[in-house]
C-alpha cells in the first residue's frame, strides 16, 4: 500500500488478533507475500488468531485499570506479564521497578481520556493495526494493542484502524479495475475509509 489507509471501525469488529509468530511462521508469512502487490498476503495466516480478550496486554491492562486492586497485585500482574514475554526474573523485577508507576499513570490517564472523549486519532505514531482476512473479517495486527485494550475496557464504541494488509482471496472477490489501495478505499467506504494526510 502506497500510504496508510485509515478506517473508522466499530471496536466490536476487532475481536480477534493475530497470534505472535515464531521465526518459522514469520518467514512463511513473508513468503506468502512474494510476487503479490504490496500489502497482499495469501496463505493461512488468518487461522492463527485468538480472541483479543486473551491477549496478554488486555489481561494486564484489565488488572492495572482496576483501581480497587492493591499495589502488590499490580506488581504480580506485571511480573506475570513480563515472564510470559520471556524476561528473566531479574529483568522482570528491574522493569517493574522502573515501569509500574509510569504504566499506571499513562494507561489510567488514557482510560479517563477515552471514557470522556472516545478514541482520538493520532494518540500514537500510528493507528491500530488491522488486516482483512479472506472473508472480509477484521483481524488485529501489529501496533496499537494497548490502545485497543483500553478502548475495549472503557466501552469505547469506535476506534481508528490502519489497514496493514489484506488476504488475496478477499481482494479477488472485490470489483476489478482498481489497484489494491483503491479497492480497499472503495470497499470500506461505509466505514469511512480514508487516506491518511501525510503532508501535515
Describe the structure.
With 200 residues, the protein is an alpha/beta fold. Helices cover 42% and strands 17% of the residues. The protein has helices at 23-31, 56-64, 71-84, 89-117, 145-153, 168-172, 180-187; strands at 5-10, 16-18, 40-41, 49-51, 128-132, 138-140, 158-167, 194-195. Strands 1, 3, 5, 6, 7 and 8 form a 6-stranded mixed sheet that branches. A hairpin with a 5-residue loop joins strand 5 (128-132) and strand 6. Helix 2 (56-64) crosses helix 5. The chain is globular, with a radius of gyration of 18 Å.
Helix content: 40-55%
Stretches where pLDDT falls below 50 for ≥5 residues? none
> What structural category characterises the helix and strand content?
alpha/beta
SSE arrangement, N to C: EEHEEHHHEEHEHHE
Strand content: 15-25%
Radius of gyration: 18 Å
Distance between the termini: 19 Å
Coarse morphology: globular
Number of strands: 8
Number of helices: 7
Biggest sheet character: 6 strands, mixed
Question: Average pLDDT across residues?
Answer: 92
Short summary of the structure?
The chain is an alpha/beta fold.
Give a quick set of tags describing it.
200 residues; alpha/beta; six-stranded mixed β-sheet; two-stranded antiparallel sheet; 7 helices; 8 strands; 42% helix; globular
Amino acid at each position: 500500500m502506497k500510504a496508510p489507509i485509515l478506517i473508522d471501525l466499530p471496536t466490536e469488529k476487532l475481536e480477534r488478533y493475530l497470534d505472535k509468530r515464531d521465526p518459522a511462521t514469520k518467514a512463511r508469512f513473508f513468503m506468502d507475500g512474494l510476487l503479490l502487490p504490496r500489502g497482499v498476503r495469501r496463505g493461512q495466516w488468518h487461522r492463527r488468531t485468538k480472541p483479543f480478550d486473551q491477549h496478554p496486554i488486555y489481561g494486564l491492562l484489565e488488572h492495572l485499570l482496576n483501581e480497587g486492586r492493591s499495589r502488590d497485585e499490580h506488581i504480580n500482574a506485571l511480573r506475570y506479564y513480563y515472564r510470559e514475554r520471556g524476561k528473566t526474573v531479574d529483568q522482570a523485577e528491574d522493569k517493574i521497578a522502573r515501569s509500574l508507576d509510569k504504566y499506571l499513570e499513562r494507561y489510567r490517564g488514557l482510560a479517563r481520556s477515552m471514557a470522556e472523549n472516545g478514541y482520538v486519532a493520532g494518540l500514537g505514531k500510528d493507528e491500530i493495526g488491522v488486516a482483512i482476512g479472506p472473508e472480509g473479517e477484521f483481524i488485529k495486527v501489529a501496533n496499537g494493542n494497548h490502545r485497543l485494550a483500553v478502548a475495549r475496557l472503557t466501552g469505547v464504541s469506535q476506534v481508528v484502524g490502519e489497514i496493514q494488509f489484506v488476504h488475496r482471496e478477499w481482494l479477488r472477490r472485490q470489483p476489478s479495475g482498481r489497484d489494491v489501495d483503491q479497492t480497499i478505499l472503495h470497499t470500506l467506504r461505509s466505514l469511512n475509509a480514508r487516506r491518511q494526510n501525510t503532508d501535515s
